[in-house]
Amino acid sequence: MTTAIVYTQMSQFAMFAFLSQSPCGKVDTHWRHGGSMKDAGMRIRVEQDLREEFISVCQTQHIPAAQVLRQFMRGYVEQAKTKATKAQATTKTKKSAG
């Protein structure tokens, strides 16, 4: 559910800006290269205007909307892990200095 909130609160531009900066922002070929099968679904609620614009942009770019969302999710998870690792390192540094 947290993911659904992120999608509804992020602007379309912010999501694509994030994708272009994330290491997962590349074309999603995960399934073609031995990646795991997609076995879980997620249903999210977004404003209809946002959904229509998002679908339109994806169609213009010839990229399935689900692929873009998976890319965003992978990048978001990776970003969160990186932040957690940095926070943990900072805490260890402060403890050893004190």
Keywords:
mainly alpha, 0% strand, 98 residues, 65% helix, elongated, disordered N terminus
Task: Briefly say what this structure is.
This protein has four helices and no strands.
Number of helices: 4
Through-space gap between termini: 39 Å
Name the quaternary structure: single chain
**Rg over C-alpha atoms, rounded to the nearest angstrom:** 17 Å
Which structural class best describes the helix and strand composition?
mainly alpha
Low-confidence stretches: 1-9, 16-28
Count every beta strand, where a strand is a DSSP E run of 2 or more residues. 0
Question: How would you describe this structure to a colleague?
Answer:
- The chain has 98 residues and is an all-alpha fold.
- The protein has a domain at 1-10 and 45-98.
- It has 4 helices and no strands.
- The chain has helices spanning 2-9, 12-21, 48-60, 65-97.
- The chain is elongated.
Show the helix and strand layout:
Elements: H1 2-9, H2 12-21, H3 48-60, H4 65-97
